[in-house]
Design goal:
Blueprint: E1 8-11, H1 17-27, E2 31-36, E3 55-57, E4 63-67, H2 68-71, E5 77-81, H3 87-98, E6 102-105, H4 119-125, E7 130-135, H5 150-156, H6 181-204, E8 208-213, H7 214-220, H8 223-232, E9 249-254, E10 257-262, H9 266-276, H10 290-295, H11 297-308, H12 313-322, E11 327-329, H13 333-338, H14 340-344, E12 348-353, E13 357-362, H15 386-392, H16 397-405
Parallel strand pairs: 1-2, 1-6, 2-5, 6-7, 7-8
Antiparallel strand pairs: 3-4, 9-10, 10-11, 12-13
Helix pairs in contact: 1-6, 6-7
Length: 409
């Protein structure tokens, strides 16, 4: 049995940070009921349903209506369409919340209060409820009312100031990360916070409100770069693929492309130097220690680049791996999913899908020995589970038909 199979999550979130958190809980066994806007012709549901191309294709190569973006964060969920701007829709969501363990939402601060779906309203119905609010800037502060988007937060939160080529190099300038990393990190922090709140509830019986902000998460995840600044008073600068604290730890050209060299200690550097045919570098006072290499980076890196272009990427990797020097190729995504380690670990899975026959997914990276991750169903079609969930709440066919005729579901 999955670890969270005893829990029900009411997911009022959309796009990425919230759905990423709820998918994590769903993979661990929780029942997740995803509430979406009713609508047809590309106007209903989670915004990401319409963020294509690319679209999921069936076994004949024909495009379906399901966007690849939506598919990345919504498996193992049930989709229920409810217009909670209507009183009848609010009543449905409140009934679901009354029986839920967790609510996840990412509306603007105060956005759900007018519908009676905010924490104060729902916790009055269900004091054990854990209610997680995900916003750009948090529930308080001078920016609380602003909308927050991953790209914006990567800029405001400092990530782009340390990402991109260094000033003076061709193509220099701030650069965002190639995936919505702040959203992903926020979703993961939200899931951790929810699990902590569950542990608290087990001891006390009390639910609580969790306030997670993209900006807070981005600042927290600056990690060593944040401490580099706080300890020195000097803001870190963009360094391309180089590392501020370790040398050599970056990309290097080879005879047929590029590779990553990630030397983490002096012994690894000495072994690299021997394979490169320059053992003298390992005993040169400028390069013998990591601190010296950081201080003499400008002298060392050109020497290394002159050496690495003498062999192919494959030849370097074979030689360096044999000597336990960390290195690797720079794969595109075709290379990633063809990689023998990625294939061995089963990082691509396929789940049955009603429109396409099957839908590709990226596996959850958690490997739990006693309560493994479950893959119960592909990301649902819009409203796929509306009638089933309403029947579980006690609605009969006539009541469901009336709600549908009125546009509530």
């Amino acid at each position: 049995m999955a670890a969270l199979s005893h829990l029900t999550v009411l997911d009022l979130s959309r796009v990425l940070a919230g759905p990423w958190a709820s998918q994590m809980l769903a993979d661990l066994g929780a029942e997740v009921i995803k509430i979406e806007r009713p609508g047809k012709d590309g106007k209903g549901g989670d915004d990401t349903r319409h963020w294509g191309p690319p679209w999921l294709k069936d076994d004949q190569g024909r495009e379906t209506s399901e966007a690849a973006y939506y598919l990345c964060a919504n498996r193992n969920k049930r989709s229920v369409t409810v217009d909670f701007t209507r009183a009848e829709g609010q009543a449905i969501v409140r009934r679901l919340a009354a029986g839920a363990d967790i609510v996840i939402e990412n509306f603007k601060v105060g956005g759900l209060a007018s519908y009676g779906l905010d924490y104060a309203s729902l916790s009055a119905l269900n004091p054990r409820l854990i209610y997680c609010s995900i916003t750009g800037f948090g529930q308080d502060g001078p920016y609380a009312a602003r909308a927050g988007y991953d790209f914006l937060i990567q800029g405001m939160g400092g990530l782009m100031s340390v990402t991109g080529r260094a000033d003076g190099e061709s193509g220099a300038g701030p650069q965002k990360v190639g995936v919505a990393l702040t959203d992903i990190l926020t979703g993961l922090h939200a899931a951790v916070g929810i699990l902590a709140a569950l542990a608290h509830r087990e001891r006390t019986g009390e639910g609580q409100h969790i306030d997670v902000a993209l900006l807070d998460v981005q600042v927290a995840c600056l990690a060593n770069q944040a401490l580099n600044y706080l300890a020195s008073g000097t803001p870190p600068r963009r360094m391309g693929n180089a590392h501020p604290n370790i040398v050599p730890y970056q990309d290097f050209p080879t005879a047929d492309g590029d590779m990553i060299l990630a030397v983490g200690n002096d012994a690894q550097f000495a072994r690299f130097c021997a394979i490169a045919g320059h053992p003298e570098w390992a005993v040169d006072a400028r390069f013998a220690t990591n601190a010296a290499r950081v201080n003499h980076r400008a002298e060392l890196i050109p020497l290394l680049r002159q050496a690495t272009v003498m062999k192919t990427t494959a030849a370097w990797i074979e030689a360096l791996e044999a000597a336990a020097v960390p290195c690797g190729p720079i794969n595109d995504l075709a290379g990633v999913f063809a990689d023998p380690q990625v294939r061995h670990r089963g990082m691509r899975i396929d789940l049955p899908h009603p429109l396409a026959g099957s839908a590709p997914q990226v596996a959850n990276p958690l490997r739990l020995s006693a309560t493994p991750v479950e893959y119960r169903n592909a990301p649902p079609l819009l409203g796929q589970d509306t009638e089933a969930v309403l029947r579980e709440l006690g609605h009969d066919d006539a009541a469901i038909a009336a709600l549908r005729a009125a546009g509530v579901i």
